[in-house]
UniProtKB/TrEMBL annotation:
Name this protein carries in UniProt: Threonyl/alanyl tRNA synthetase SAD domain-containing protein
SUPFAM superfamilies with a match to the protein in the record: ThrRS/AlaRS common domain
The Threonyl/alanyl tRNA synthetase SAD domain, residue ranges: 231-256
Keywords, sorted A to Z: Metal-binding, Zinc
Cofactor(s) it depends on: Zn(2+)
Source organism phylogeny: Bacteria, Pseudomonadati, Pseudomonadota, Gammaproteobacteria, Enterobacterales
Source organism of the structure: Xenorhabdus yunnanensis
KW Zinc (keyword) present: yes
Length: 269
């Protein structure tokens, strides 16, 4: 296996993959210094504690408030500079660098992330009638099936794959899984129709920050059918649904009858 490298900078515009809930694919891009340009192929979250660096899964679940999380840039190759680095690490350490995020890739990922939020609201709406007990509701007043059953989410360029789990606990919460799964094709159709309607009117999207710290809560805000909608989210997003040309949701069966997979595809204008 080839060695790989990480570069840490004082500041970075790169979106790192979240180490706890790694739903959104991280930024890629380039780092430029003196006459060199190197490819950044992934960005992880890291914590620096007492001079030690902990990356991604090695970050402890119990961080202190003063432990800062930072993005670390991951490189697969130094483009032939390996020798230079071995001879003189100061070739980059302490130097000014220019970090550039691949804006097109980021835009496509942001589009997929925003659309998966709308999909979750459309899913909750279509699934509302399958609840026979009260449960938490979303911003549109529908029971929040997404919150109750989301298992894993993988958001990449123009596509989000969301796995939902319908185990014993969701049944206890009052959700009629059997009836829902029996009607899954019509649920799928309804979600697509709902999203089409929602997209026919442009809606602004905002991300509200408490601070720019990676670990602080952020809120995704938009409007659906004249209702403000809010979802807690640490990801990146498009600014308006007008940027989306088309969205299509495809529901597949999962690895067992406890799971379903929802793929949200979107196209940009
Ligand atoms: Zn999100």
């Amino acid at each position: 296996m080839n060695p790989s490298y990480i570069i840490i900078t004082d500041n970075s515009p790169f979106y790192p993959e979240n180490y706890k809930w790694g739903d959104q694919k991280s930024d890629i891009g380039v780092i430029a210094f003196s006459t060199h340009i190197l490819n950044i192929v992934k960005t992880y979250t890291a914590a620096v504690i007492d001079g030690q660096i902990y990356i991604d899964q090695s970050i402890s679940n119990k961080l202190n408030s003063e432990d800062k999380l930072i993005p670390v840039h991951y490189l697969e190759s130094l483009n032939g500079l390996e020798e230079n680095f071995i001879l003189d690490r100061k070739i980059i350490i302490g130097k000014k660098v220019k970090l550039s995020v691949d804006a097109e890739a980021r835009h496509k990922i942001s589009a997929a992330h925003s659309m998966t939020h709308f999909m979750s609201l459309a899913l909750n709406k279509a699934a509302n009638k399958y609840w026979n007990k009260n449960y938490d509701t979303d911003s549109l007043g529908n029971f929040n099936l997404d919150k109750a059953s989301i298992f894993k989410s993988s958001i990449s360029e123009l596509q989000s794959i969301d796995i939902y789990r319908f185990g014993k606990s969701i049944k206890k919460k009052g959700f009629d899984k059997a009836a829902f799964l029996q009607d899954i094709d019509s649920v799928n159709e309804e979600i697509n129709l709902t999203l089409k309607n929602w997209l026919s009117v442009g809606s602004e999207i905002q991300v509200e920050y408490i601070s720019k710290n990676i670990e602080d809560l952020r809120l995704w805000k938009s409007t659906v059918e004249n209702h403000p909608v809010v979802i807690p989210c640490g990801g990146t997003h498009i600014k308006n649904t007008e940027e989306i040309k088309d969205v299509k949701v495809e529901i597949n069966s999962g690895e067992s009858d406890e799971y379903i997979e929802i793929i949200t595809h979107c196209k940009l204008r």
